[in-house]
Specification:
With 135 residues, the protein is mainly alpha-helical. The chain is 67% helix and 0% strand. It is globular and about 60 Å long.
Amino acid sequence: MKYRLTTNSLQFIQPKYTLNGFEWKDQRGVEGTAYVVALHNLLTDRLHELVPKVHAILLKTLKAEIAKSGTKNGEWDLLPVYATSKRLVTNANCAIFFPKELAENEEFQKAAVAWPMDVAIAAEMIQLLPRGIGP
């Protein structure tokens, strides 16, 4: 299976502006190459060590979210699904893709949770601007 960013998604994200100057090659098949290599080779080869690590991170994050909600043993409480899911996914991704010092840094985790929405908002704003103002 081959993953590629379509022209529309490249136009939406505009990585040159939203990803600090990063530019995707505009050649067929090149856009998703690093992504495919990372997922199919590097991460797959390390699954045996990553699964327990991610499991521990997810448990720790979920316990922290439950503790924040004020739940006591044996009681039911509500957790905000969207916010909790974002934290779970972000903490798991941070543990896989970043060094431990960053992955466990609270300020970095907050930035990692906010980053996707910040990029989407910036991309929308850039699309509304005339091309010459985008940079």
